[in-house]
Amino acid sequence: MHHPPTCLTIAGSDPGGGAGLQADLTTFTRLGVHGATAVTAITVQDTRDVIDFDVLPARRVAQQIEVTLADLTVSAIKIGMLGSAENVRMVADILAEHPHIPAVLDPVMVAGGGGALATQAVVDLTRERLLPLAMLITPNTPEAARLSRHEDPARWGETLREMGARNVLITGGHALTETEARRDPRPPIVNELHREDGHTRRFELPRLPFSFHGSGCTLAAAIAAFLARGRDLEPAVIEAQGFMTDATASGYAPGKGQHVPNRLCPQA
């Protein structure tokens, strides 16, 4: 019997369903992909910010991943919040054992509301161990600056590639600073794809007048879903950005904080 391809998300849980593995699963389902999960952390958060979280032991996360890989044919992996240095090491070891499965790494460090989700040890190990193993990393601009340790935005993609990242999509959908907003309250969102062959492509997407909770998770999950469906990297990025544009255009505010992308929206 024919069945859809399977995508595994390794991520934290969001009780409000706006981000984390709940966002990933909704995206997978909308894009015709069977979603499998490995829970890394239980967060206490709402649409405004992260209040607290507990990280699962690496042994328990590894068991979830290994039993899934042994039982299901996983066509792509999406990695979100890992929460501990031990989890970063463990996921890196597992990815090294499965190099044929494309992995999309969303290096989650700070929640949309500003709450910290990664220690410096997690950031350092992500840079050293995970960057070379993922097919694509999708840092937003603050994450790209922290990972690359470079002050010049023009050098972030190049620097991350020099550090071992194969392909880098730097996303520009972060909240504007007061200075940026005064200069232009609705500048386009600029995403830059730096490919392993040295090619760089710039994408401009519309910016809406409010911020989103879970947009980074959704974009990375959508790219993983399209990879699982057999797309090459750049077409997967392009289609995922189109999905995100539609999802944010029809986004909504389910709580008292940020909007969330409407991941159930019909595709254009």
Strand residue percentage:
15-25%
Question: Strands across the major sheet, in which order?
Answer: 3-2-1-4-5-6
Helicity, as a percent range: 25-40%
Number of helices: 9
Structural class: alpha/beta
Q: Give the SSE string.
A: EHEEHEHEHEHHEHEEHH
The chain-level mean pLDDT equals 91
Spans of at least 5 consecutive residues whose pLDDT stays below 50 are: none
Integer-rounded radius of gyration: 17 Å
N-end to C-end Cα span: 29 Å
Major sheet size, sense and barrel closure = 6 strands, mixed
Basic shape: globular
Count of extended strands: 9
Briefly characterize the structure.
This protein has helices at residues 20-30, 58-71, 85-97, 120-130, 141-148, 156-162, 178-183, 215-228, 233-249; strands spanning 6-13, 34-45, 50-55, 74-79, 103-105, 136-137, 168-170, 189-194, 200-205. By secondary structure, it is an alpha/beta fold.
Structure description:
The chain has 268 residues and is α/β, with parallel strands linked by helices. Helices cover 38% and strands 19% of the residues. It is built from 9 helices and 9 strands. The strands form 2 sheets. It has a 6-stranded mixed β-sheet. Strands 7-8-9 form a 3-stranded antiparallel β-sheet, with helices on both faces. Strand 2 and strand 3 form a beta hairpin. The longest helix is centred in the C-terminal third of the chain and has 17 residues. The mean pLDDT is 91.
